[in-house]
Amino acid sequence: MSAIPISVQASSHLGASAPDYLSGLNPEQLKAVTTVTGPVLVLAGAGTGKTRVLTTRIAHILKLGLARPSEILCVTFTNKAAREMRERAERLIGPAATGLYNLGTFHSIAAQILRRHAELVGLKSTFTILDDDDQVRLLKQIIEGRRIDTKRFPPKTLAHFIDQWKNKGLLPDQVAKLNDEGADFAFGKGAEIYAEYQDRLRVLNACDFGDLLLHTLKIFTQYHEVLAQYHARFKYILVDEYQDTNVAQYLWLRILTNADRNLCCVGDDDQSIYGWRGAEVDNILKFERDYPGAEVIRLERNYRSTKHILAAAAGLIKANSARLGKTLWTEDQAGKKVLVQGIWDSAAEAQWVSEDVEKQKKAGRAYQDMAVLVRASFQMRAFEERFLMLQIPYVVIGGPRFFERAEIRDAIAYLRLIQSPDDDLAFERIINVPKRGIGDATVQKLLMQARVAGQSVMAAVRDLIDTDELPTRARTPLTAFVRDYDRWRELAKTIKHDMLLDTVLTDAGYYDMHRADKVSGQSRLDNLKEMVNSMADFEDLMAYLEHVSLVMELERDAGANSVKIMTLHGAKGLEFPVVYLPGWEEGIFPSQRSMDESGLRGLEEERRLAYVGITRAREEARISFVANRQVYGRWTSQLPSRFIDEMPIEHVEAVSQTGYAQAGWTSQESRWDRAGYQPNYTKREEPKAFGGNLSGVDMSRLEPKPHRPSAPAKPQPSKGLTVGTRVFHVKFGYGEVKETEGNKLIVRFETGDKKVMDSFVEKA
DNA sequence: GTCGGACTTATTTTT
DNA sequence: TAAGTCCGAC
């Protein structure tokens, strides 16, 4: 744990020249970078230079010659984080960064390891990685095979339980002893079906995401010589976002940490927002217990936000109990107080935000300096509608991802089947897409035959088309398909994989199928084109398929010069000068469901989410809540979120004209009243000076008025705003945006197959 | 194989 | 409310 003595002034290791990569670090950061031996926990608050510390640490280890690039294991959660890390490391150490083979996500590194030792867990090294769609379909087969009603016991639900178990590192036999909700699935058959699912995966030579970690974990536990090999290889381990690790990842890291214990975990317990998918805040809380003698370094100097923003966020997070505790500080100016605005209903809320966006724009801010962060995606719609009317360019970040689109999945299934004829799930997906007259009954028959004969479906088809067991009506198209398939396999040996896909999709009539589709065919064809283009960047089909199963994303138009609309979860790791935080109402945020399902733990996670939201702001955070909100078509009366009261009032500004009163509350006791703000609807005594925090105000005394419809908001022509020639490429409901005709941009939105609106935007 | 009506179900989402 | 799924009718 001892810091290797190195200072900016003098270093015997680094020759005469000062290590300039260390210059500009503050004392804590320097310590986090240079304490390279022994376990280290870096508690890095929001905006304290976490990534910089990690990358500089890598550089430092390399410059001191303590390890070669390939001997550093550096794990992240997302591909984006891994990419950013690599880029920044490259800037520090130059081309040597290419040698950082073990910098990547937990899953990609685990997959690499598993490919090398697959046979130890009964797989071949060419195993396929299933996406959750495949996973669900496989489970459906198993459940139906057991004659269990898939309506009462949906495969999706079990898939969710299995994921949770795998997150916790639980294997089927361990689940059997468990008495949880999932084990009760289908009258206590949960564990049994889980076991069967694992067996099927082995037969299919496949694994799901959780298996990547669990299988490697099993190998490390059972084969000491393999573990020893990795202990020798991974001399230094670095972990990003440690607060997001689940139990399986935690165990994985523990076992990979060798006797030298050169493990450095960086994280922030206050930003743990993924509990619902298995993250254990506990992992970071108990780090010191797990690694006795660990050095704990706190990064508390914030380089992002103003004083008011930090103080408001700090007051909020203070209400959480289980924390390691940090006090962020900044040398930045006080700045503006966090604004809190009560509003009548959600349409008015969107109006308020968009007017403010225009005001900011006129005052010289760029659109990309602003972001709207919502709790749940259904809240996005109101903002999209309003932004459209006002012609404010925006981009929705998140939403259905490229590789989750049906057409892309189909194309991948074709490729997967060509790559490995045994891929039954891929076969099933495309055998009748486009329609070849091979119906459900035939497919079931094929599956059955394959199962009985213990062979793959493709092999079963080859056998069956030579017999009389199938009606001619099914045999003819199947024969044709096999013939095509064999041709594609041959073709794959000679032509490049991107050309291969193009040919296959043409031959199979897949393009034609979408060309015939007037509604969304064109956008699907566009997506396929994009896919073919993207394939060129990969060496071969194998490499491409590995990429799509693990990376599952494609660089999308980042939407320069546009307001970002995203969920709070999606905003983690980002920052914006101005952040809008709408929908701070009890039940919405904090989410009722969170609180119902996980009680206090759920509430605390919601609070961390609020904390993440506020700390995204560099200069301005603007919170709003409404009195009336439509939830699933019903009007509901809302109460302001408790989080509002938890922010210290001296760092918060409420707009007097439009505080609770305007939002529709009738209370005489709202905190704004007591803070001296004059509601505009009632006479009251001299405002009293208010001192101190207002948490503890009895919120039950606030009574929202029942909803009365407000006058529909008129679309307002954009005043003096220029919309550039930017191509709008956004999501709206379930439709897509088309574009351009002459000097006009036509933005067409479709919901399902109903056209909703056309919007015309003059090109500037 | 396709269409339409009934029925169900509404967080957060990465790998 | 509104979108997705399922099932029966043609």
From TrEMBL:
<dbReference type="Pfam" id="PF13361">
    <property type="entry name" value="UvrD_C"/>
</dbReference>
<feature type="binding site">
    <location>
        <begin position="44"/>
        <end position="51"/>
    </location>
    <ligand>
        <name>ATP</name>
    </ligand>
</feature>
<protein>
    <recommendedName>
        <fullName>DNA 3'-5' helicase</fullName>
        <ecNumber>5.6.2.4</ecNumber>
    </recommendedName>
</protein>
<keyword id="KW-0413">Isomerase</keyword>
<dbReference type="InterPro" id="IPR000212">
    <property type="entry name" value="DNA_helicase_UvrD/REP"/>
</dbReference>
<keyword id="KW-0378">Hydrolase</keyword>
<feature type="region of interest" description="Disordered">
    <location>
        <begin position="679"/>
        <end position="722"/>
    </location>
</feature>
<dbReference type="InterPro" id="IPR014017">
    <property type="entry name" value="DNA_helicase_UvrD-like_C"/>
</dbReference>
<feature type="domain" description="UvrD-like helicase ATP-binding">
    <location>
        <begin position="23"/>
        <end position="306"/>
    </location>
</feature>
<dbReference type="InterPro" id="IPR013986">
    <property type="entry name" value="DExx_box_DNA_helicase_dom_sf"/>
</dbReference>
<feature type="domain" description="UvrD-like helicase C-terminal">
    <location>
        <begin position="307"/>
        <end position="573"/>
    </location>
</feature>
<comment type="similarity">
    <text>Belongs to the helicase family. UvrD subfamily.</text>
</comment>
<keyword id="KW-0347">Helicase</keyword>
<keyword id="KW-0067">ATP-binding</keyword>
<keyword id="KW-0238">DNA-binding</keyword>
<dbReference type="InterPro" id="IPR027417">
    <property type="entry name" value="P-loop_NTPase"/>
</dbReference>
<dbReference type="Pfam" id="PF00580">
    <property type="entry name" value="UvrD-helicase"/>
</dbReference>
<keyword id="KW-0547">Nucleotide-binding</keyword>
<dbReference type="InterPro" id="IPR014016">
    <property type="entry name" value="UvrD-like_ATP-bd"/>
</dbReference>
